[in-house]
Amino acid sequence: MKTEIIIIHMKLQFFKQPVKLLLMLAVLASSGLLMSHCNITPTHTDTSEKNLKSETVVTGLNMPWAMAFLPDGSVLVTERGGKLRIVKGGALDPQEVTGIPKVYYRGQGGLLDVVLHPNYKENGWIYISYSSPKKEGEAGDDNGANTALMRAKLDGHQLTNIEHLYKASPNVRGGVHFGGKILFDKKGYVFLSLGERGQKENSQNLAKAQGKMVRLHEDGKIPTDNPFVKTKDALPEIWSYGHRNPQGLVMHPTTGTIWAHEHGPQGGDELNIVEKGKNYGWPLITYGIDYDNSIISDKTEAPGLEQPVIYWKPSIAPCGMTFVNSPKFKDWNGDLLVGSLKFQNLEHLVIKDNKVVKKEIIFDKIGRVRDVKQGPDGNIYVVVESSGSIVKISPKS
Amino acid sequence: MKIISIITCAAIYTLTFFSNHQEDLNKSIARGKELYKESCITCHLANGEGVKGTFPPLAKADFLSKYPEKSIHAVKFGMKGAIKVNGVDYNNAMPPSGFADDEIADVMNYIRNSFGNKNTQLVTDKMVAAVKKK
Predict the structure, then answer these.
(1) For the whole model, what pTM was predicted?
(2) What is the pLDDT of residues B115-124, one digit of tens each?
(3) Total domains present in chain A
């Protein structure tokens, strides 16, 4: 009897407090949501290496560097020696594409990136970067070279409508640091990454296109709102500077920010968010040291110089990168996959609010990774230099 | 008298030959050093020590002294797969250098006479040209 009274009393008390009632309803509602979430969980497998498989889908390439997916399902692949190849129905077409200019195939140089114009279906433009040997009348060293950008259309096995859009100046002898990655933003501009060609001091020199990120209109014209257009003695194509050798260049799928990684010296590879007019510090600041262990700079930071999102120590020799934005890799959406030439693996970088919160190595010993792209089918494709192949990474089930 | 003059002549000839040889080697080594700094240094490092387990050393490397032809082949055509250098296993890949035959000779002469290595036999462009892709 006594207990009954107490319960009734409690009930009365309870209904007298609308806040509590609301809370109760909220708890019920959210547990309902949780339940419904639980109901779908069993069909969802976590994205992790153990739930993924890798399979070689193309072989027989010679020093492949980059790939681009054509709308008809075939793939264009650059070979650094100077050939553009077509992969059709999973097989490498033995006939190469003609029309590629003479490339400077030396050290790290040669035929580099291939990227389709965002409206490729309408206009057919293919953008290609390469190490271009010095031509008469160009500035710089005899027998030197620097990175160039061209575009053309594909007609069967032939490049047509070839337009030479840009060449970095001056020409420099030697086979290192060409950069060469091409990126379109969503505003009609094309970016090209340029290495410092082994002359680190020129990364800070705005009169030279070494160690820079350049921004052009898609026809090669220089935008009038580039940051150094009005700066005396500065090259108007420069978008950012103080880079060493950037060979990963991507745009975040939702925010549109541009991310680049670059080869540093020993222990100084960097991941950066690239913004207009900014100085990324090479060689005034660096986390790395020279190959003979000598000090390049005793500073890792300085006012006015950008800090990387992360740096790699020891160096991984990063090449190729993609943001994941695919229903097949749900848990990884918004994350970065970075290729490593040195350790022959991929790094999965978990990104939260423009920070790397976790790093993990996946597909160890895959080979020297040159390019990483998400395909139109939502799977991840990796260009492996050492095995001359393309490897597909997809969910097991 | 005749014998003395023959001996003298032979001595002069030998000296000239070897000093020329030494000069050729020194010049080749100097050119090779620049090429080394251009292409090889990023992995094998300035003192040829490499990165243990990742990039094999060149300094006092048994592979280099045991297999000169394989070493030339590696610079010329690249190299991949498992090798053992100074008792340590490596399984990586090296791209071809893109160097001309005379440049490969130079860089070989530099490597074979640096980092504590010593090999006075001159590698020539003809020797490099004779190494064919396997």
Answers:
(1) 0.87
(2) 999 998 999 9
(3) 1
